[in-house]
Design a protein that fits this description.
The chain is built from 10 helices and 10 strands. It is of the alpha/beta class and about 280 residues long. The protein has one domain: Alpha-Beta Barrel (TIM Barrel), CATH 3.20.20. It has an 8-stranded parallel β-sheet. Strand 6, helix 4 and strand 7 form a beta-alpha-beta unit. It is globular and about 40 Å long.
Length: about 280
């Protein structure tokens, strides 16, 4: 499958790596490192050189307890960076946002994919995304970022996440978003305990059965830290393990901080998948 991201193709015939570019002061892993536009652009160049086939630019942290960011501030953070990257890099640029105003400004600046943790549920987001016509990624989240990890609860996490994503797909199609422009993200760490996250990863094929490409993001997250009893700086190997498992279980895109190492891991996954 080839996804048309505002004129830049994204070939999903093998698992791909999405490089995380947080232009925020407070993201959980690399907050503050890439706030300056010149530093952000240099980091994006590096990730593409390491094999990232899409760069995801975010201007508002969605870690548990993170403070909300005003529309104007988020646009000021992401739009100049997206414009610079879209003009220079051959790969699609994704905007990680839930705000319709930011979506519109980002796509005007050259973004070719909307990655929304609210799955286009904020007022106006669904209509704007349909109007803009670029692919969208719909993520599952129980609650909202400020409080999502206080008491996550499910009767059957896999069935409930699948049902939510299926409903959002139908609502998007009804609103005018073509089905072949939709990606799905189970939302690891977004309103989920360690047990929920591990179950979702193990049963990822149940979500793949929805028939749309899956995007997964587990890089350096607390699920890795909890299993390995490791701080942020000690989560690389665990992150590579869950990235490889995600790709093996059907993910089309893996969203990561550590691009080169993950690209190598996924090349091995793809080689085994292609074997007789």
């Amino acid at each position: 499958m080839i996804l048309d991201c505002a004129g830049k193709p994204l070939d999903l015939s093998v698992p791909r790596v999405m490089g995380i570019l947080n232009v925020t002061p407070d993201s959980f892993s690399d907050g503050g490192r890439f706030v300056a536009p010149a530093v952000a652009v240099a980091r994006a160049r590096q990730m593409v050189a390491e094999g990232a086939t899409v760069i995801d630019v975010g201007g508002e942290s969605t870690r548990p307890g993170a403070a909300a960011v005003a529309v104007e501030e988020e646009m000021a953070r992401v739009v100049p960076v997206i414009a610079a990257l879209a003009a220079e890099l051959p790969v699609p640029i994704s905007v990680d946002t839930s705000k319709p105003e930011v979506m519109r400004a980002a796509v005007a600046a050259g973004a070719g994919l909307i990655n929304d943790v609210y799955a286009l549920r904020l007022p106006g987001a669904l209509e704007v995304a349909a109007e803009l016509g670029v692919p969208v990624c719909l993520m599952h989240m129980q609650g909202e970022p400020r409080s999502m990890q206080q008491a996550p609860h499910y009767v059957d996490v896999v069935a409930e996440v699948r049902a939510f994503l299926a409903r959002r797909v139908e609502e998007c199609v009804t609103a005018g978003i073509r089905r072949d422009r939709i990606l799905l993200d189970p939302g690891f760490g977004f309103g989920k305990t360690l047990a929920h996250n591990l179950s979702l990863l193990k049963h990822l094929p149940a979500l793949q059965a929805l028939g749309l490409p899956l995007l997964v993001g587990m890089s350096r997250k607390s699920m890795v830290g909890a299993v390995l009893e490791a701080p942020l700086e000690g989560r690389l190997y665990g992150s590579l393990a869950v990235a490889a498992l995600g790709a093996w279980f059907g993910a089309a895109i893996v969203r990561v901080h550590d691009v080169k190492a993950t690209v190598d891991a996924l090349r091995m996954v793809a080689a085994v998948q292609a074997a007789e």
